[in-house]
Design a protein that fits this description.
single chain, 3 domains, 21 strands, seven-stranded antiparallel β-sheet, alpha+beta, Glutamine Phosphoribosylpyrophosphate, subunit 1, domain 1, 663 residues, Rossmann fold
Length: 663
């Protein structure tokens, strides 16, 4: 991934030197995303050239005038594009912005189209073959996977071109032939992107909000699965999967098809010209990613040879000393055969990093910051080893009903509606976390579970297959310190041991169909205790003391009086706990505008749910905390004394239990 910035339609008369200085200043704020090189391009109408209308094209001579060279002197600048590069594909020649190569068959003149892209296009080679069949034998100037965007745009138009891509991406495109410019974001919003309006009417597009927040009073998250077009000044939808059609899916689960679709998704993301690894928490999702990647790597090494670094896959985990994730990750790594690197952090190191995490992630969402802080610390260690790309397991819980609150889903209709909304919000939460906590150190995270083709398979499965069997919903009461270890499983039965006591739960547990798809006893992908491990949210799995420490620290930083009058300081999305107030206070000091605050939506949650799910069970009332331990089925669930409104009650706030739900 990289960082991109576009400033378009600046005020008339803006000088080149002024715009160039502003472009560099704003792009520099996200140079952590692209530490390998910087590219800047100014664009002018030229002294004697009027803006071209739709369908009109500039001549070759005009194109040379429009694109301002360094130290150019022609006319005033109108647009500017910047690119901060993290070189993963074609490190030697793939610098951006990219300029079109000549292709007479498609009417493409040299330099006529400019692209700045962030992300990876995994199927770019197949797309070049498709273009040849369509009469566009485009020969790229570079080996960059993103240059394919240029001939695709010319041949198919912006929206259709996006629908052909398989990858994670956001990009800016400028057509010097017509004066058209636009931008697009991938189907889920895996890559971050923001849209802003300057006070002079200019249009700003940037990978991170920090590059435009000071200059744009109006800021929003760029809509995933959409393009933005200069000719309409509006968004245009390009991603419309069948599972969002309003028709409830009815396809039975084909375990082989599901497994093969995921294996293909992982293999696609192993494309790299630099050292890479996998994030391995020891949970089901990251462990499957690591297992499939190691198998693929072993097969390729045997058949094609591999570099000394990649002859063995490197895996990384993080947690407090003795945390559940560190132990589980070690077991998974030993089975899979990775070169494993466990990292520990102390509570104080985590607390010290919170303000910097808020700065980089551009959010004040509680669960995002809880989970992002350990990931942020781990990414710094990973970068120090020379690794620039990692595979990660985000997305499975949203697609396959993996969170513990799904135990309470009343029916398949409610479950599927919740999944649709959860996938739609990934760009605000989990994708934002994975993208920005790693890119803060120039490390790219790729997420196989959010592959468009895998989504088409998994989200079109009858949601009845994703329901958690009532027989596995019985809450297990245990002490805070007790740990859950799955020790065996057979035909849907799960056997758990708690300090010598065993309890058998018959039925489907969370993400049962994914577990079953990879339950191959003759050639196991994972050991049973990992394959059938209960869902553990990342912010819990790094060590239960982490969230407790954050709450205690926030309580010391935020007074009862401050919290009591929070609605006056933060009328939008008023913090519901002192922990939330603490994060919001940090955020507001960095990004003080209401527009910035509105990039995070309002709403309560239990264990990462949407607000809809709070009505699923009476036990959720008063427990609307994002931790998985707030749900009674968690093996180390909070006891009956836990009250998410405790801070409000102590401060005398009048919005206790204000969700307005009926049970």
């Amino acid at each position: 991934m990289c960082g991109i910035l576009g400033i378009f339609d600046v005020a008339p008369g803006t000088t080149q030197s002024t715009l160039r200085a502003k472009l560099i200043e704003c792009a520099r704020r996200m140079r952590h995303r692209g530490p390998d090189w910087s590219g800047y391009q100014l664009i002018s109408q030229g002294k004697d050239k009027q803006e071209l209308g739709a369908g009109q094209h500039a001549s070759s001579e005009s194109l040379q005038r429009l694109c301002i060279a360094e130290h150019g002197v022609r006319g005033a600048a109108k647009h500017a594009i910047a690119h901060e590069r993290l070189a993963i594909i074609d490190p030697e020649s793939g610098a951006q912005p990219l300029f079109a190569a000549e292709c007479k068959q498609a009417g493409i003149e040299e330099g006529s189209i400019i692209v700045a892209a962030n992300g990876e296009i995994y199927n770019y080679k197949e797309l070049y073959e498709l273009l040849k069949k369509e009469g566009v034998p485009y020969e790229p100037n570079t080996g960059s996977d993103c240059e394919v965007l240029i001939p695709l745009y010319v041949k198919f138009g912006l929206e259709k071109a996006c629908s052909l891509l398989r990858g994670m991406f956001s990009f800016i495109i400028y057509d010097q032939r017509t004066g058209f410019y636009g931008a697009a974001r991938d189907h889920i919003g895996i890559t971050s992107l923001y849209l802003g309006r300057g006070s002079d009417g200019s249009v700003w597009i940037a990978s991170e909000m920090k590059s435009l927040a000071r200059d744009c009073p109006d800021v929003e998250q760029f809509k995933p699965g959409h393009c933005w077009r200069s000719d309409t000044q509006q968004y245009a939808l390009w991603y419309a999967p069948t599972w969002r059609s309003g028709v409830l899916p009815s396809t039975p689960c084909d375990f082989t098809k599901l497994r093969e679709a995921f294996v293909k998704a992982v293999e696609r993301r192993m494309m790299s010209d630099v050292p890479w690894g996998v994030l391995l928490s020891g949970g089901l999702d990251s462990s499957l990613v690591a297992s499939v990647a190691q198998r693929t790597l072993t097969r390729k090494a045997q058949g094609e040879g591999a570099s000394s670094w990649m002859s063995k896959l490197h895996s990384f985990s993080v947690g407090l000393k003795g945390s559940p994730d560190l132990e589980a990750a070690q077991k998974a790594a030993e089975h899979i055969g990775t070169q494993h690197h466990p990292y520990t952090f102390t509570l104080q190191e985590g607390l010290d990093a919170v303000a910097e995490v808020v700065h980089h992630l551009e959010t004040y969402d509680v669960t995002t910051i809880r989970a992002a802080t350990p990931m942020f610390l781990m990414s710094r260690k990973i970068k120090a080893m020379g690794v620039k790309m990692v595979l990660s397991g985000e997305g499975a819980d949203e697609i396959l009903a993996g969170y513990l609150y799904f135990h309470k889903a009343p029916n398949k209709q409610e479950l599927h509606a919740e999944l649709i909304d959860k996938v739609a919000q990934l760009n605000i939460y989990d994708c934002l976390r994975a993208n920005k906590s790693t890119m803060a150190w120039g490390v790219e995270a790729r997420v196989p579970f959010l592959d468009a083709d895998f989504l088409e398979v998994a989200m079109n499965i009858d949601p009845k297959e994703k329901m958690i069997d009532a027989r596995s919903r019985r809450p297990v009461r245990c002490l805070h310190s007790m740990r859950l270890v799955a020790i065996s499983r057979c035909r849907g039965w799960s056997l758990f041991r708690f300090r010598g006591r065993s309890q058998v739960s018959k039925g489907r547990i969370e993400k049962y169909i994914l577990r079953k798809a990879f339950d191959t006893p003759d050639d196991p992908y994972l050991p049973a205790e990992i394959l059938w491990r209960q869902k553990e949210q990342f912010s819990d799995g790094v060590g239960y003391g982490w969230i407790d420490a954050l709450r205690d620290h926030a309580d010391a930083q935020v007074s009862d009086h401050q919290f009591a009058v929070a609605k006056h300081r933060f009328p939008y999305n008023t913090p519901a706990t002192k922990e939330a107030y603490y994060y919001r206070q940090i955020f507001d000091g960095i990004y003080p505008s209401l527009g910035a605050a509105r990039t995070i939506p309002e709403g309560k949650s239990i264990a990462c749910s949407t607000e809809r799910a709070l009505a699923w069970d009476a036990s959720f009332r008063g427990r609307a905390d994002q931790s998985g331990r707030s749900v009674g089925v968690h093996a180390a669930a909070y006891d009956a004394s836990f009250d998410v409104d405790a801070d409000k009650k102590r401060a005398g706030r009048d919005d206790v239990n204000s969700v307005g739900l009926e049970f």
